[in-house]
Amino acid sequence: MDRISWDQYFMAQSQLLALRSTCTRLMVGATIVRDKRIIAGGYNGSVSGSVHCVDDGCYVIDGHCVRTVHAEANALLQCAKFGVPTDNADIYVTHFPCLQCCKQLIQSGIRTVYYAEDYKNHPYAIQLFEEAGVKMKKVELDYLTLDTKHQEKTEYVQKLLNKLETLERDGEEIHGLKKQAASLFE
Ligand SMILES: [Zn+2]
Ligand SMILES: [Zn+2]
């Protein structure tokens, strides 16, 4: 049995949170971690009790949706609300933080920003993180490690393809299907 790494575990948590996002423009999740423990989580969404982008559409000003509080900010604010210190904590985000979130993370004492996907990585955000000594580390989520039936699925598809090969004379098409299966399962 392969044990999931801490990085994969926390990033998967952020990915799960992103699924709760209420803004259709981008689904982001963030998890704040201290001493290998999750202390807060957030996703981008409207202020509590207000209408959601998914229901009423985005409120766009100058090309940005102004309705939502960003995932990183929501996670930090959860700490503020319940009095949980964020000093020397780390954050796992699905996307590289925007400039506003970058500044808030620095001010909150976050030490490392783990992100899964590049997202308009602003040069000034990178500069600010570097000046503040905040580390930036890319951690791509390996979805296959999260799938407990991965092995069975791979073997099943392999079996189907082999069976198909014995029935079908068009080797070209089977070859294409095999290549597609390999890209999905490896
Ligand atoms: Zn929106
Ligand atoms: Zn942001």
Description:
With 186 residues, this protein is of the alpha/beta class. The chain has 2 domains: 6-138, Cytidine Deaminase, domain 2; 149-185, no CATH class. Helix content is 46%, strand content 20%. The protein contains 8 helices and 9 strands. It has a 5-stranded mixed β-sheet, sandwiched between helices. A two-stranded antiparallel ribbon has the order 3-6. Strands 4-5 form a two-stranded antiparallel ribbon. The mean pLDDT is 93. One zinc ion (ZN) binds at residues 70, 72, 97-98, 100-101. One zinc ion binds next to helix 4. It comes from Ornithinibacillus halophilus. Residues 5-132 form the CMP/dCMP-type deaminase domain. Keywords: Hydrolase, Metal-binding, Zinc. InterPro entries: APOBEC/CMP_deaminase_Zn-bd, CMP_dCMP_dom, Competence_ComEB, Cytidine_deaminase-like, dCMP_deaminase-rel, Deoxycytidylate_deaminase_dom.
Q: Top keywords for this entry?
A:
alpha/beta; Cytidine Deaminase, domain 2; 2 domains; five-stranded mixed β-sheet; 8 helices; 20% strand; elongated; binds zinc ion
